[in-house]
Design brief:
Structural class: alpha/beta
Number of helices: 12
Strand content: 15-25%
Organism: Pyrocoelia pectoralis
Keywords: Membrane, Transmembrane, Transmembrane helix
Protein name: N-acetyllactosaminide beta-1,3-N-acetylglucosaminyltransferase
Radius of gyration: 26 Å
Strand order of the largest sheet: 1-2-5-4-3-6-12-8-13-11
Order of helices and strands: HHEEEHEHHEHHEEHEEHEHEEHEEH
Number of strands: 14
Number of domains: 2
């Protein structure tokens, strides 16, 4: 029996020694192994760490709050995404609309695969329809809605819904056998249409943007759908071009926008986009309504670039002279100037003032080579039958705003378009 016990003891000691060697040697081998797996692990960890160091960002909590903002009540983070983000971990797609725009989020969420911040304008009875639309998306579509999308609600103070209390009225449930709340609803039947309520487009934009947890944001219209893999490719670009992303940099990163005809498929990658463009199935965004507003520098060269993996910088330009009407969509940060809240949708040209401020600050606009946006199918045109009616006068006219901006930031040659400030 002693020999047996001794043999068992020897065996156990041998196993323990082997285990220790394995525990020591395997990590040692991984550290020195040139395999793709080990490189991937090390690169990912270093990338996440270095982005925080490069941009000097800070994390923000995702908290529900109700605040009065000018003549509006803002229900911030009213319906929250389950996933929380550190400031350096992703890029947030920020967008706005009313509940009739909600179906566009289905495509955006599917393609973006990351945090989305949505500010909905919802006064009077539209408030409840908006909550039902949110519940429908969260319960009857992809689980990604619950994981990634946070909703904010903006209500006109003079048009508060009658049911009280509102702060806890949202119920996260929906009978998915019923039609979506936004289906078969005419815009003329909206509460805000019936009561001629102004659409505070730039207040919504700022709320959606400032609510993002991530340092980087893409503020885009809700009917603009992104190409695939923007987030991981952009974060890799940050680590490659560190100097463009430090806290002193005044650079934004433009995604060229396009349109496709009704009933056409929205391309998901650049190869598909270029093929459609060459076959006249895709055109520059707003080509027939405001071509200078979205004119991309060297577009023909951009289209002829060899399509490569990842994301790189194509060219850089200023928003001056021939581009002084430019209203690009870009990845930026909340350090960039906010959108001009004294201008509403009804006034028209609602993004020009923000871009004018960036011009005065001498921003660089870098065009990304392998990322883009495509408008919901249907090419917009203006005609005598369908004119652009968004020219409602405001006391905050462009001349008055420009005078204020120049007093703060100074003047810069080429930023001003004679067409804009009249």
């Amino acid at each position: 029996m002693k020999i047996l016990r001794g043999g068992r003891t020897t065996l156990i000691i041998g196993i323990l020694i082997s285990t220790v060697l394995i525990i020591y040697l395997i990590p040692h081998k991984i550290r020195n192994c040139p395999s793709d797996v080990s490189r991937s692990i090390i690169t990912t960890n270093n990338q996440i760490k270095s982005i925080r160091e490069i941009v000097d960002c800070y994390d923000k909590p995702l908290k529900f709050s109700i605040k009065q903002y000018e003549k509006y009540w803002v229900f911030k983070n009213f319906v929250q995404a389950a996933r929380r983000y550190k400031c350096d971990k992703s890029v947030t797609f920020t967008t706005i609309g009313d509940y009739l725009h909600a179906d566009n989020l289905i495509v955006i969420v599917e393609r973006w695969k990351g945090p989305v911040s949505v500010a909905f304008h919802a006064s009077g009875e539209d408030f409840f329809a908006t909550l039902r639309a949110i519940a429908y998306l969260r319960n009857c579509h992809s689980l990604a809605f619950k994981e990634f999308v946070t909703f904010h609600i903006v209500v006109d103070s003079d048009h508060i819904p009658k049911n009280i209390p509102l702060y806890n009225i949202y119920a996260d449930q929906f009978n998915c056998s019923e039609a979506a709340p936004y289906e078969n609803v005419s815009r003329t039947n909206l509460y805000k249409t019936k009561h001629n309520i102004t659409y505070p487009i730039n207040i919504l934009r700022n709320i959606a943007r400032e609510s993002a947890q991530t340092h980087f944001v893409l503020a885009a219209d809700i009917e603009l759908y992104p190409s695939l893999n923007v987030i991981p490719n952009f974060l890799k670009l940050v680590t490659k071009k560190k100097d463009l992303f430090n806290s002193n940099s005044r650079s934004v990163f433009v995604l060229p926008p396009f349109e496709v005809p009704l009933n056409e498929t929205v391309p998901i990658d650049k190869k598909s986009l270029v093929r459609m463009y060459n076959n006249k199935k895709a055109i520059m965004f707003h080509k027939f309504t405001c071509s200078p507003c979205h004119k991309i520098p060297k577009l023909e060269e951009w289209l002829k670039l060899d399509v490569k993996e990842g994301l790189n910088l194509f060219t850089v330009t200023k928003r001056t002279f021939q581009y002084s009407l430019w209203e690009p969509f870009y990845i930026g940060t909340n350090d960039d100037p906010l959108f001009e809240e004294r201008i509403h949708w009804e006034n028209g040209r609602d993004k020009l003032d923000q871009n004018y401020m960036q011009c005065l600050l001498d921003y660089d606009y870098w065009i990304l080579d392998n990322a883009f946006l495509v408008h919901r199918p249907g090419i917009k045109t203006f005609s005598e039958a369908h004119p652009d009616t968004r020219h409602k006068p405001t006391v905050y006219n462009s001349q008055r705003l420009r005078t204020g901006y120049n007093a703060i930031y100074g003047e810069r040659k080429g930023c001003l378009s004679k067409v804009v400030f009249i």
